[in-house]
Amino acid sequence: MTVRPPDLVYAVDERPPLPRLALLGLQYAVLVSVYLVLLVIITRAAGVDPYVSRNVISVGLLAGAAGTMLQSYNGRFFGSGYLAPPVFSAIYLAPSLLAAERGGLPAVAGMTIFAGVVELILSRFLVRLRVVFQPLISGFTVFVVGVQLGLVAITHALDVPQEGQSGFGWHVFAGFLTLAVCVGLSVWGRGVLRLMSALIGLAAGVVVAGFAGIFQTSEIAAVAAAPWVALPDPSFISFGFDFTLAPVFLAAALAATIRTVGVVTTCQRINDAAWKRPDVANLSRGVVGDGLGAVAAGLLGVMGVTAGPSLAGLSRATGAASRVIGYATAAILVLFAFIPKISAAILSLPIEVDGGILIFTASFMITSGIQLMALRGLDVRGGFAISVAFLFGLVAQLHPAYFAKLPDALRGIASDMLTLCLVWANLLMAIFRIGIRRSDTVAWRAEDGSLVDFAALLDKEGKAWKLDDELAKRARESVANLVTHLTESNCLEEPKTISASFDDLELRVDIAYRGRPLHLASHPISLENLHDETATTAGLDAFLAGVHADRASVATHGDDVTVRLWFAA
């Protein structure tokens, strides 16, 4: 049962008063708009004219609104129901730049739809993809995306194309002042001021750029000439598909799925004081909502959106986590879309200021990736896997011509740093998993002492295996309840052994005995997923037996019975 955290001002199901709702929605809408700088980079790479670029920004605001509504919706099939507005993310930046350079905006739109569909498919396999979602691979994915974004950001912040021109120093100063303000507020700021650091840094960079005369006369004139109210012109929307880019966008979809799982899990923790384990069904709906948001963005002709971790953090800092704020945010984003002056102003932002913001974002992603990778410690296998994968990925970034003569399908994989890194990391981790399972066994005696021995086994091996305390406790309780149930139901004739093994992803416990097989439901579920009639329609036997494993099976060979329990790490 969910327990409302006492520090929340507005919990997920509560509705703030209208004036506060409007202000909170405006705050989130402005923060979502900051990430539109990524769309500016895409329009420049696609080489479209200012009129089309302005309408891309306007339509991008509509895409942000659609994604926010889809994620805020607490539905049966999609939507996490949490305040987790999506943003234009660095995850889609590198793939979209490749698409824009090869096929313009139509390729960006078509491939974004493809990525969204892939994310929808991945939402059905979250449990089966635990190997990919383990902290090492998840953290490595975030780290590589941060490096990709950082390389683009540094080029923009240093204004490399303008090197040697008059006033070049002011250009670089504007970029680094933007970065300095963002970092300074993030390190020394408090509360909402800290979480608004990107927006305040952007404002500081714009002020310096205006003082130094960095804004071009034509850009100022474009903002002045833009109407205050007008419908976005969707005539630029068209669709293309480049088969060679499919692996790149598939990797982006995987990264977006990983990020969404992390963000929605954070939202679950923010809204439940008694949170212990992720609600996988809710995570799946959240990933569906994120995938539908990416599809919606592609249908509107822009790059993909995905869950924004910083906005989830804002709800924690302000104590306002109501999903109704998400709907208010979406409404204000739609309003922004019909004000072309806002789009023109975003489009006129100096490239150096954009670069400063993006370095700040990239730094956060790199740091988060390192923290994730180190979450459960880094052994020799994992260290080799990510090191080798990262070095091969750097080849794609630093020497792209090296793979130019590869077949189209392979060149698509080798042309993107993230794709190449993920392929190598997952391949090496699959190889290194050979022989990774560690196991131990205790004799099962009729007296209760065997359960003490099993508990001692988990305590001893748990340290070597780096078992989570909660996981070990759940396994001990489940085995104790199962043994009691076997005894009381007269299924047990002769006990044999209790063994445990661990492969860094699952703890497996085998209870072997002679006697009658215990009936377990074919689809066991954990306590966290029990609701309404679930306990009576699926898993009642397991629940009554106290078997709260993620999976369970019973195998028989004559009178020999083995009950196998799996507990996800």
Describe the structure.
The chain is elongated and about 90 Å long. The protein folds into two domains: 360 residues, no CATH class; 131 residues, 2-Layer Sandwich (Heat Shock Protein 90), CATH 3.30.565. The strands form two sheets. It has a five-stranded antiparallel sheet with strand order 3-4-5-7-6, with helices on one face. The chain has a two-stranded antiparallel sheet with strand order 1-2. With 569 residues, the chain is of the alpha+beta class. 61% of the residues lie in helices and 9% in strands. The protein contains 23 helices and seven strands.
Number of helical regions: 23
The tally of structural domains comes to 2
C-alpha end-to-end distance: 22 Å
Low-confidence runs of at least 5 consecutive residues: 522-546
Amount of helix: 55-70%
Strand order of the biggest β-sheet: 3-4-5-7-6
Strand tally: 7
User: What is the N-to-C order of secondary-structure elements (H for helix, E for strand)?
Assistant: HHHEHHHHHHHHHEHHHHHHHEHHEEHHEE
Please report which band the strand proportion falls in: under 5%, 5-15%, 15-25%, 25-35%, 35-45% or over 45%: 5-15%
Give the overall shape.
Answer: elongated
| Overall pLDDT metric | 85
Question: Can I get a quick summary?
Answer:
This protein is an alpha+beta fold. Helix content is 61%, strand content 9%.
